[in-house]
Task: structure prediction
Amino acid sequence: MNILPGNLRFGAGQPVKRLEDQRLLTGKGQFIDDKPEDGALWLYLLRSPHAHAKIVSIDTGAATAMPGVTAVYTGADLVKDDIGIIPTLSIFKRPDGKPMTVPPRRLLAHEIVRYAGEAVAAVVASSRADAQSAAEAIVVEYDVQPAVVDPVEAVKPGAPLVWPEAPDNIVGAMAYGDAAKVDEAFAKAAHTVELDLVSQRLVPSAMEPRSTIAEIDKTGRLLLHVQSQTPASTRDVLAEAVLKRPKDSIRVLVGDIGGGFGQKTNLYPEDGIVAYAATKLNRKIRWRGDRTDEFVGGTHGRDLTSTASFALDDKGKVLAYRVSSIGCTGAYSSGAANIIPLVLGPFVQTGVYDLPLVHFEVKSVMTHTAPVGAYRGAGRPEAVFIVERLFDAAARKIGMDPRAIRKANYIKPAQLPYTNAAGQVYDSGAFAHMLDRAVKLADWDGFAARKKAAKKKGLLYGRGLTSYIEWTGGRAHTEKVSLHATSEGRVILHSGTMAMGQGLQTTYTQMISDTLGIAMDKIDVVQGDTDLATGFGSVGSRSLFVGGTAVAVSSNDLIQKAREKAANVLETSIEDIEYQGGMLTVVGTDRRISLFDIAEKESGAKLSVDSEGEVDGPSWPNGTHICEVEIDPETGVSKVVRYTTVDDVGVAVNPMLVTGQIHGGVAQGIGQALYEAVSYDADGQLLTASYQDYCIPRADDVPPIVVTLDDSAPCRTNPLGAKGCGESGAIGGPPCVTNGVMDALAELGITQLNTPLTPQKIWQAIRDAKVG
Result:
């Protein structure tokens, strides 16, 4: 971890309004579709209508002859040109001990398709309409094969195979803990509770669908304009794995991104085929996905099916915790597809609780469906959902207050740093304190009166409680930045992290301004250019606590370098040079020089430093969420009417931005709990391919969310004391809302329903309960 001077400030606690908003809200954003046509050709993809089929033949003759068409490509063309596949991390073992094996992810399907929506041909034409018309003229003969879409069914004997080299459709498996000791604890326990739980498949719903432009510049380099949270790795995969050319022959440029949520961390086949066409034709090529392209061709999130159980003593202390899970990867393994269920989920599966005796068994399984990838929280929402649903079920079975059972199991402050059952070390936290604050702020004692009032209206009324923890930072604990002071009086930051709505321009500017004493309107933050910065990028809520550490280091490095230069110019020792507000002064005199005058004397008229920020490990944001839910038993409609959070994000550089991040995450959590679900039919056809069939929450479905930030347990793994915050709401939200709905239904004897808790599902459960 970097050690920084104690006198440096980092703008902590200042709710500076977002600098990005004026530009973005007045139509001046630089999104891919804002780029001028400039004679570009358009690319359109023909997608398979079948979930599993052999490609017998593809006739492109009619399409090639149509007006405006420049080229038509098939998977066979790409194989002929030695175009590579999109890789995944092959680091796991199958249950039989053999290395994991997955089908090759090609830019265009070759010989076989494995999910409905997989691209089988690409048309390049003078307009998007011409390209689409020509694609529809392509004739593909398919030999349709049986498909499997349910991961639980996929592992059963005789199930259709996604990839013959995995005869049971299992990609990889992991186990944690001691099965024998857990079995022994269950045999002796005073109480046991078990739930079958599903975190259903979701579609990430960013405002901006994916788009790509590729062109060859005057020097022969390939320029790829793409939406990517990780520009450097996008460049590297495209160069080394797909096009098989040097990395420095490609420049990836990312402008504004209209939402990422983890979905935009991979190189997609569409990006690769656009780049291929640009190199093949030496023309600018562009592709813009429509919303259905996102539903059928983008990655989905979640899709974890679990059976989980607690063994408890008569005082509510958990003696053992057992979970068996199947995580679906879809037909192909995206970069993180197997890591999400096999590693990231188990990392937080014990939550904020002292549960050392566990046995977790997890399998990642292929089906004939769209690939599953990172989506806000990536594994952690699924895992926290399991433990929090179990605690509520256990409290109800034993007859304990849901607060009391959690307090009986919380990790105590004296146990920190705490190593959980998956070997992860929590460096800081005050979990009982967070609950106590949330209980007061949520007016816990007033709940009974509100429930009584709702009952008079004929409504069911329930309360949900969740304590969550989140692992942030990925495995990349360093980030590089460059900081420049120019002779024009500006300070410019180049960072490899990537803004996608979280307010990084504001936060970084705030930190630099506070440290250097330079006005914020004199500071420029430049991201999304692999020629200028090649850091790890923005995933796993790492941007501030890792990327921000690098910004803090660079500010200090620039001051130090400026002091050295000033000492030379002013002919004194560096110890006599004091920096303040952009001026370097000889202590006790009026001899001084400005930072920007020093820059003018440097090569290129700028003073520059290249810096690296390093943290000691992940951060562990956590908190308590409490909500109240009313249900109309006549219609089954649920509505979240109150929502209170106390969140520990360590030191919040900009509390307003953190609060906004939590609001957004909770809104997505409400969507997961009540509305959203991807649905395939038995043949693998996506039934929810648009917002006509896939429901996301609207503004009037989200109540006022009262967020309180608690900084009583700052992070100890980075010099800022900051913890990640971008995914917290999406982790605490789903179990909190689900627990609220189930609490409301408990009086009818309904103990378990799987999300989404739609009106139809709740209505039917109420009818069945009354009949029973």
Q: What stands out?
A: The chain has a mean pLDDT of 95. Residues 396 and 402 are 8 Å apart (CA to CA). The longest strand covers residues 318-330. The first helix runs from residue 20 to 25.
